[in-house]
Amino acid sequence: FGVTVLDMRVAILGDEYVLLLADDQTEIVRAQSVRSDFVANVSHELKTPVGAIRLLSEAIDDAADDPEAIRHFTKSLHKESGRLTALVQDIMELSRLQGTDVVAAGLPVELDRVINEAVDRNRLTAESRDISIVVGRKVDAQVFGDADLLITALRNLIDNAIRYSPAGTRVGVGVRERDGMVQVSVTDQGPGISEDEQGRIFERFYRIDAARSRQTGGTGLGLSIVKHVMQQHGGEVSVWSREGQGSTFTMAIPVMEDMGAGDASRGEDG
Ligand code: ADP
Fold this sequence. Notes:
Strand order of the largest sheet: 4-6-7-9-8
Strand content: 15-25%
Structural class: alpha+beta
EC number: 2.7.13.3
Distance between the termini: 47 Å
Order of helices and strands: EEHHEHEEHEEHHHEE
Number of strands: 9
Main location: membrane
Subcellular location: Cell membrane
Bound molecules: adenosine-5'-diphosphate
Organism: Kocuria coralli
Keywords: ATP-binding, Cell membrane, Kinase, Membrane, Nucleotide-binding, Phosphoprotein, Transferase, Transmembrane, Transmembrane helix, Two-component regulatory system
Largest sheet: 5 strands, mixed
Helix content: 40-55%
Radius of gyration: 23 Å
């Protein structure tokens, strides 16, 4: 039947009928395997900065008489510990999101607020790379969920757009309503992503160019976090991209339904 049955119980119903109760354990077995893959990946990813920090601290010890070398190693040490912090934060975020229904106690969230905050938090990185963030026309829409998670998700998309694009280019953030969904999209003029890779980039720790990702401070978990935030909101994230022409990532989230008494005032516009 294509299922792994690990648990079967038999109930006797009278003389002639036997009822077999079989639990489909396929999902449980699959979840266990996904979890152990994740633990293996996490250990592997943690080893890189932890190993670098150990080597750098030894190098600082050895360079006791060379202030210039100490400055250099200390700078690298700082960078590696920043990488470790980002990794631990993303791992915690992802494991929280994979728990049950983190937005069960969601509230109405103004999309404009999400966009403003996500853009603000990326301003400095954008400026440091001479990239301008252009925000499109406002849409007066609300969704039901967790504002902080939605800001984190959009921030990740804008952060990627900035990190993977050449200096001097533009990143566009747009929002529109269609078919009961609010679509928030982030468009860049970066290298683009091949069709093959488009199917894989939402996997945990998957990177097209691992060196580039690490060098720019990526953890390999950004898009996976976006995907889980969308799942928690009954929405989805998708990508349109052509190599050499840039990429557009879109988060589609259900518009907040008319909430009935008390809070219906702004839920049904558009
Ligand atoms: P990372 O921390 O490596 O950026 P993500 O999960 O955010 O991890 O993204 C996975 C991979 O997808 C990245 O390593 C990069 O190769 C690719 N990617 C993501 N966003 C873009 C983009 N806007 N343009 C080109 N490639 C991208």
